[in-house]
Amino acid sequence: MKIVIVGAGEVGSHLAKMLRNASNDVTVIDNDNERLQRVTSIADVGAINGSPTAIDVLKSADVASANLFIAVYPRAMQHVNIVSALIAKKLGAEKVVARINDEGYLDPENKLMFKEMGIELMFYPEKVAADEIVENLRHASAAESMDFAHGKLQVALFRIDEESPMMDVKIGEFATMMQQEQVDFRVIAINRAEETLIPRFDTKFQYHDLVFIITKREGIPLLMKYFGLSRINVDKVMIFGGGVIAEMLARSLEHVVSDIKILEINKERCFELAEKLDENVQIVNGDGRNSDFLMDEGIKDYDAFVALTDSDETNILSCVAARKFGVERTIAEVENIEYIHLAEDLGVDTVINKKLITAGRIFKFTLSGKARLVKYISGTSAEILEYTVASSSKITKGALKDLDFPKNAIIGGVIRGNDSFIAVGDTVIEPYDRVVVFAKSEAVKEVDRFFK
């Protein structure tokens, strides 16, 4: 696939590397030579120095033959991305995507208007991150989980610590325990020492493992019990950092929870937030890195602590401090991908990374039209994909055990009509099923061929 990316900032560079690793032909346009040099040092991509809205520059990148055009120009008004995307579409690009920074553009009527003009997807990374945090808090449990098919199936993430009842238990033994409880589930992956494993029945859970399990919604409470976790009622949320994500998060939560407090060090920004947000959202001017300040603000009384400052290190360490104060759920924005494992090792419950969330939404456009959703899992080299099965696709040609499905991928669950079930070797996938697949990055293209 031929892909042109406008913008060699953090998001553009991450997309360039990811899409090139998936064997796509990638060209990056930017008018900053230093940014171009950085992206070419991490990925084997073409680089063109020039204005992102100049027609001759776009033509030199052969936009007319591009299968996908992505406008993610950094630190610019959204009109730069929108104009370049519209020009690319007019020149002949097959699909175009643009980054925006105005939430109003995502209103249904506005999205429809831009779609009619030819922009297939507009995304606002900060809004996507805020929505991800709301979804995470909504599950109200000590286990991080993701919904598929409106919650008919869920993928839950469990961490094995020194007190976990599952330490050194084989997956086969765990399956026997769960059969007695009549709960359908499947362990679809384990992240261990920065390596993502597709487990077998004799695989043992080990200290520091991150275990991914797919089950029906009703199976989550019992899985939590076996992993020694308890349900958390999130009704009081403290947010450290008063940026755009914090503002959106507070607006989403203000009628859902009883107590929201934002800690922001910049006094002027505090006044802005006070004017924009409901009066029941408390805005406090102060430094959340100070333990005495956190104590004075009653951190011990809060159910969840969300760190959203511009510093990854501050976000991670403040979550560690919140955990020591007894806060049961911690969430940190961590934009440096290399820090994600560090955050998880230090006990941060959930890591939010805008680049990874954005990448999943855009990567879907490089797959067959049957891919409904792609979600990158922070801290792993894998994705979770949801497909709608075409009537002629290879995946329908027999039982899963007979299909030579990629070894670095696993089909976890199936939604058929109003029913959902966990896939096993004898399962036969039928046309129009919705299927949840866990795949390591190198297997995604091969998995996609099974669903074309």
Walkthrough of the structure:
The protein is built from 15 helices and 22 strands. Helices cover 32% and strands 26% of the residues. By secondary structure, it is an alpha/beta fold. The strands form four sheets. A six-stranded parallel beta sheet has the order 3-2-1-4-5-6, with helices on both faces. A six-stranded parallel beta sheet has the order 14-13-12-15-16-17, sandwiched between helices. The longest helix has 14 residues. The mean pLDDT is 90.
Task: Identify the notable features of this structure and list them briefly.
452 residues, 15 helices, 22 strands, 6-stranded parallel sheet, Alpha-Beta Plaits, alpha/beta, 32% helix, Rossmann fold
Lay out the secondary structure.
Blueprint: E1 2-6, H1 10-21, E2 25-30, H2 33-42, E3 46-49, H3 55-60, E4 68-71, H4 78-91, E5 95-99, H5 108-117, E6 121-123, H6 125-138, E7 144-148, E8 153-159, H7 171-180, E9 185-192, E10 195-197, E11 210-216, H8 220-226, E12 236-240, H9 244-253, E13 259-264, H10 267-276, E14 281-285, H11 291-296, E15 304-307, H12 312-324, E16 329-333, H13 340-345, E17 350-352, H14 354-363, E18 371-376, E19 382-388, E20 409-416, E21 419-422, E22 434-440, H15 444-451
Parallel strand pairs: 1-2, 1-4, 2-3, 4-5, 5-6, 12-13, 12-15, 13-14, 15-16, 16-17
Antiparallel strand pairs: 7-8, 8-11, 9-10, 9-11, 18-19, 19-22, 20-21, 20-22
Helix pairs in contact: 1-14, 6-9, 6-14
